[in-house]
Amino acid sequence: xxxxxxxxxxxxxxxxxxxxxxxxxxxxxxxxxxxxxxxxxxxxxxxxxxxxxxxxxxxxxxxxxxxxxxxxxxxxxxxxxxxxxxxxxx
Length: 90
What we know:
Blueprint: H1 11-23, H2 28-40, H3 52-58, H4 72-84
């Protein structure tokens, strides 16, 4: 069952919303209802109610210890050269 809602907004904003609704072949009521649905939609949670950010922070920083001064860029170039047969160009 639908209920009526009265809201007050700036006139220039209302004009823009009317134009947007016309362009998208929808009503202002539908736009407002969709927006409210998105606002109250539950946020996805991981196990134990953790958010994704909390989960990422709980992970160990790295499982591999790389030597100081390890050059990632150089190692990637070497591996790609080996993969595509260009190792003699390095």
